[in-house]
Specification:
This protein has 283 residues and is an alpha/beta fold. It has helices at residues 9-24, 29-33, 40-47, 55-64, 70-81, 97-107, 127-135, 143-155, 158-161, 174-178, 184-198, 249-264, 269-282, and strands spanning 112-116, 168-173, 203-208, 222-225, 234-239, 242-246. The chain has a six-stranded mixed β-sheet, with helices on both faces. Helix 4 (55-64) packs antiparallel against helix 5 and helix 7 (127-135) packs across helix 8 (143-155). The longest helix is centred in the N-terminal third of the chain and has 16 residues, at 9-24. The protein is elongated, with a radius of gyration of 21 Å.
Length: 283
Amino acid sequence: MAPRSRPTARQVRLGTELRRLREAAGLKAREVAGLLSSTSAQMSQVEAGFAGASEERVRRLAAHYACADESLVNALVAMSTDRTQGWWEEFRGVLPPVFLDVAELEHHATFLHEVVITHVPGLLQTPDYARAVFGYMVPELPESELTPRVEHRLRRRAVIECDPPVPYRTVVHEAALRIRVGDREVTRAQLRRILDESEREHVAVRIIPFDTEHFAGASAAMMHVGGPLPRLDTVLRDSPSGTAFLDAESQLQRFRTLFRKVERASLDPIRSRDLIHHLAKEL
């Protein structure tokens, strides 16, 4: 089978976990290649996500690495055999691959924890708000690129609207609610949208007011995507250079702690709804 030209983030993660198991066993790629009648180069392709691994191969590798964590092995097998062709595949070749990677991660998530400071969370955005966000990019996007980005963002909401839905908790700074990304009507409709979504049993929206003291977490924006096991969680962070996918255990632990810290600084969901209602009435 020819190597993949561009593996997805999920495929890369499977390879990363297989490499971590090998390194924990103290083995070199060339030592393992012989077990599979393979080569070091082919092993490197598997561990980089450029080549797949069958269920048999994953289980043989795990046994050779003396991995006794059956739940982890089963989770890796599920990743290796998954052939899901989700709605995001419609955008392949239309949008940058990272858009598809984010949607796929959310689709497989066991929970979603998000912190946003300056923008309304993507999963809660209205069409007009999303269009205003993407329409502000420099250089300006042509309509042929702007429209699919908006559509993709709206279709991501499937994860909190499906049955069963993915549990979603988000902490939003008041700044994100007050900044008028669009006009007054767009802002009012966006606040109403957040209120409607927050009524879902599996959605928790918490607000950090401007007058919160001792809050220095303006750089805490992130999305924590729950995996089938805590070890397989992923944290997404946006930067001017793109979206980073973080999965080292030390990084995951850091952002778990950071989310709890930011959440403690926020209002509870009921008082958060009251604040959103108040902001909507001001418009």
